[in-house]
Every structure is written in structure tokens, then in C-alpha cells.
Design a protein that fits this description.
Two copies of one chain form a homodimer. Chain A is of the alpha+beta class. Chain A is built from six helices and three strands, in the order H-H-E-H-H-E-E-H-H. A three-stranded antiparallel β-sheet of chain A has the order 1-3-2. In chain A, a hairpin with a 2-residue loop joins strand 2 and strand 3. The longest helix of chain A has 23 residues, at 89-111. Chain A binds a DNA duplex through residues 1-3, 5-6, 16, 18, 32-34, 42-49, 51-52, 64, 66-69.
DNA sequence: TTGACATATTCCGATATCAGCATATACTCT
DNA sequence: AGAGTATATGCTGATATCGGAATATGTCAA
């Protein structure tokens, strides 16, 4: 059994760097496909396909404007990832604490104690 | 050009659900491979291989204890993902604002205007 | 309706990834 | 050293994914 599809698993969807670039490009505001093609310099089909994946996991929303399609970020889709990583927050916080503690220990040691 | 390797891209590495399960399993504390195999019920080789990927992107650290290998979470590795999603935080916040705004609009409308 | 433009979808070959099995490495204890 | 345990790695076949080119869908405008 391979990994769950990019079209159903948000984590897998953003596993592709180009899709993160796409989102990073949209972060400044809604844009239509042509604009994205210009900015990114990828073939139009590629942009559409990556957008399609992002759409299927609800990371972006589309709004038809005439013959254009304006894409925007649906932040709610990224929240699960943010929440998941948040559960590990204590690990990097603790890590910093440990570094700090060690630094203080070193400082205390150099002040007087030889052990 | 395919997506960047699971062994070099943290985002891609956690794109695999089993690897997230593995991390979720380790969140309670360091554990050796046998314990993980027991808890998860996967073939030992699979566990080792997924751990290997997590190791290559620095999401876990290993500590040999006799013939055991005790794995622990390296939270610092997840921080980049957390930071990246944080840049989109405003989107889900704004989204809630928008829902609220719309709800208020609907309420105001139903109060008098028939449209 | 016809033509032009904007975007999506389909088909293709190449590649990475997965699970499973078998085997290799590494350590411990006697 | 040799047996046994713990973990890692190599090989294989099936599958998903990617980019690219061609094509299909959809929309406007005259």
C-alpha cells in the first residue's frame, strides 16, 4: 500500500515543494492562473495541475471571474498541519531550554568551580 | 523532475501517514524499535525503514543502548514546518472573521429587509 | 455562431516510493 | 568463539507521482 494520495492528504499535498511555492505566491492575495504562470515561469498545465491538487485538499479556493479563475488561499486547510506540529512544540522549546541550561552551567563553571 | 526526496525534504518526509504515526508514538518519550514494533504492529523492517527516513531529515535522534536503539523526537526538525504554516495563520483567522461577518449580515438581513 | 483567449484535463514515459521478504550487521551473554 | 537477540539494509514488484505536449472545456466578444 503506497502512501495516501496527494489529493486526499494535506500533508502529502504540501510535500511537493512546487505546491508550497504556489501557496507562497498566493499569500499576497488572490491571483488568477495567468498571473501565477507569469510569476512562477512554469508551464500553464503544471500550474493548473498543482492548483487542482491544492483544491482537492481544500488549501485553495477558486472564484471564476469572466474567463479567468482567481485562486486564493484557504488557510483553514493548513490549520491541521499547524495544530499537529504544535503538539511537538515542547520538543524544540525544551531543546532551547536545555541549551540555555547548559550555557548557564558553563558560565557558572568558568566563574569559579573547576568541576 | 520528481518531487524532492523524502530523505531530504522534511515536508515530504511527513507526507507519509505512517511516519506521522511513528512520531505520534514517540511523543510520549524515547522508545526502542521493538517497543515501537509492538505498539504499531508493523513489520520490524518497515519500522526501521521509516525511522531511517525520519533520521535522514533530523526528525528523530538515536541513542544506542546495548543492542537496543532508542529513538527520540528532535523537535527542532518540525519547527520549520510550524514556522511555515504560521505565515498563513492570518488566513484562518481572517476566515473566521469572514464567517462571523457573514453571519452578522444574514442576521441583519432577516431582521427587516426581504431583499 | 465563429474565433480567440483562459484554464483544465488526458495521455505519456521516467522516476520515487512503498510493503514484504530475505539477509546482513551489531551487540550481548555464556 | 558461538548462539541468540535487536536492528538495519538490499532486492523486487506494484503503484503514485511528476513534467511535458496535446487536447478538451469554457467564456467572452463581435
Amino acid at each position: 500500500m503506497p502512501r495516501s494520495a496527494t489529493t486526499t492528504d494535506v500533508f502529502n499535498a504540501i510535500g511537493e515543494p512546487r505546491r508550497r511555492m504556489l501557496l507562497d505566491c498566493l499569500i499576497r492575495g488572490e491571483q488568477d492562473v495567468s498571473t501565477l504562470v507569469d510569476k512562477l515561469g512554469w508551464p500553464q498545465a503544471d500550474v493548473s495541475k498543482h492548483l487542482s491538487v491544492l483544491r482537492s485538499v481544500d488549501l485553495v479556493v477558486v472564484r471564476p471571474v469572466g474567463r479567468r479563475r482567481v485562486y486564493g488561499i484557504n488557510g483553514a486547510g493548513l490549520k491541521p498541519i499547524h495544530d499537529w506540529t504544535s503538539t511537538y512544540e515542547k520538543f524544540w522549546t525544551n531543546h532551547l531550554d536545555r541549551i540555555k541550561a547548559r550555557a548557564e552551567a558553563v558560565a557558572a563553571k568558568s566563574k569559579g568551580k573547576t568541576k
